[in-house]
Automatic annotation (TrEMBL):
Protein task: Catalyzes the phosphorylation of the 3'-hydroxyl group of dephosphocoenzyme A to form coenzyme A.
Gene3D superfamilies membership: P-loop containing nucleotide triphosphate hydrolases (3.40.50.300)
Pfam families: CoaE
Signal peptide: none
Presence of keyword Iron-sulfur: no
UniProt protein name: Dephospho-CoA kinase
Positions that bind ATP: 18-23
Lineage: Bacteria, Pseudomonadati, Pseudomonadota, Gammaproteobacteria, Pseudomonadales
Amino acid sequence: MTTAVDKPWVLGLTGGIASGKSAAAQRFAELGVHVVDADQASRWVVEPGRPALAALAERYGAALLQADGSLDRGALRKVIFEDAQERRWVEALLHPLIAEEIARSLASATSPYAVFVSPLMVESGQYRITQRLLVVDAPEAVRVVRTLLRDHTTPEQVQAILKAQASREQRLALADDVLVNDRDLAWLHSEVERLHTFYLTLRGGRE
């Protein structure tokens, strides 16, 4: 029976847009670590039939829905990036629901530690539910190029996302560990494996 002493500790994993945090999280999962993704939790709470989607549709109308009744994420993104007041309303609706889903999923972890991935770990204060914080970092110029190639978006949209996220300095100030991801995927994997070996030696996320 699991006791409070041997309950898995939580590693927070974050990084700016296109830093490589998702690829790092995937490697942790491949190594047998329980991974909880804030983005997946945020998608789950607005699935068709869930109360949050009905509330969004009531406020913003059918323009926020796709033909199959699911959320049009692009339309919602436009709303929250263009109007700070609307962003706050959406956050007040969704954040408590997302937090519940994250807590439920973390509680089900059976690996020695669990990884909680969130792009807004610092901005949202989510790092407070972790025992240790790993920041995947890369120079901003590298991240902008990756985003443009990956998302086929505009430089203006990338800058808007960067502005909405914490600065590198804010993330790095809170980091216990930093993984600089400015090389290829093999390098990223080797760094994750090195950190995993180290994390297995920790109790409660501390040395």
